[in-house]
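subagent[fold] <- orchestrator: predict structure for attached chain, return tokens only, no commentary.
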Amino acid sequence: MKIALIAHDKKKNDIIELAKKYKDVLANHELYATGTTGTLIMGETGLSIFRMKSGPLGGDQQIGAMLADGNMDLVIFLRDPLTAQPHEPDVSALLRLCDVQKIPLATNEKSATVMLEAMKNKVYFAM
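subagent[fold] -> orchestrator:
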């Protein structure tokens, strides 16, 4: 599976902790991330990650293009709903593309945990 890992600044530590906890699960998949998030996860876990540009510099849109082309299977995007994001239109477009393409999307730690636990236990969702 191709999995995107994205996190707003205040959620970067949370996505790093998720990646550390589920490193064995994630290691079996093709991982993509926005620039800073990918760099941080790689540094903490040693996972191989294809890094896009930073989110505000177009990384969200690069992952969005993959979604639009049917080249992404799961998105984990830990959003900070309490902080205004200067690239909010890009974020909204990414979330909309997940819905249009019927791509599973986790936007918080609990929903990401449900998805990663399902993968860990080989209980996959229909794609």
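orchestrator: received. Logging for downstream: The beta strands are 2-7, 30-33, 49-51, 74-78, 105-106. The chain has a mean pLDDT of 92.
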